[in-house]
Amino acid sequence: MSEMKVSAAPESTGAESVGGAERTQMQMILSRFLRHRAAMISLVVLVLIALTAFIGPLFWKWGHTIHLDIPPNQPPSADHPLGTTTAGHDVLGQLMRGAQQTLKVAFTVSIMGTVIGSLWGAAAGYYGGRVDAIMMRVVDVFMIVPLLVMVSAVAGNAQAGTTWYAVAFIIGFFSWAQIARVVRGVVLSLREQEFVEAARAAGASPGWIIVRHLLPNAAGPIIVAATLLIAVAILLEAGMSFLQFGIQPPDISLGQMINDARTAAATRPWLFYPPGVLLVVICLTINFIGDGLRDALDPRQTMVRR
Length: 306
Description:
CATH class: Mainly Alpha
Largest sheet: 2 strands, antiparallel
Helix content: 55-70%
CATH superfamily: MetI-like
Number of domains: 1
Radius of gyration: 25 Å
CATH architecture: Orthogonal Bundle
Order of helices and strands: EEHHHHHHHHHHHH
Oligomer: single chain
Structural class: mainly alpha
Shape: elongated
């Protein structure tokens, strides 16, 4: 009697698959993010804004400085699509330069605040006890005082807020507390996991465990918090420039453009509304991108919002 061979069906692992092949976690995260329509539209808009800000000045004949050939205080025209200022600036040239400087400040602040906050929060969560208590009291101090007050006070006293990197350093130094609190909460739930115990048993140092094991496993919340910090940095830079503590002439930022045109919103709207609208659009796109990243990185996410 011949044996009957029956091939068993492969067990389902619950992982999403394409064409019968299992996808990695990164592929599933990317797939969920790509299906988030608001995030994808926002990403495209933000990339277009960044390309215009950084590459546009190479092809536009007018820069952000005063030109004697530019007629002052002119409404939008063929030669100057967004008009000119009273001093003789081309508003489009100023807008591209302002967006460029604002984005440089925002991304620098995000990187700086994320690095400081992640290391601080991870160390506090890992060590716990008295170390955690002391480190988090420092975080509380940074969170109690409004950020705009702190950064403006430091910039005003130091008189260093004249360049984009000085402004970025000042804002970044005070913008890490929220990320530190987020990372600490994640690390508190991870430090007793088996992989951490195994690393300790293998003789790994606390610093190695924090950087090599804990922070990578907290990457999801860190990425989302870093994305949202970009929007916070943009608004802080605009507030500093509005208070005349931010980037100073002859350079320009979106906040400074809004401050310079605050009395001309009714009489010369081409000076006030372009930087104001662009500032709002950048902040909205970043928030939508952060929303999409949060949904994509959430391991419990099974449905993607349309």
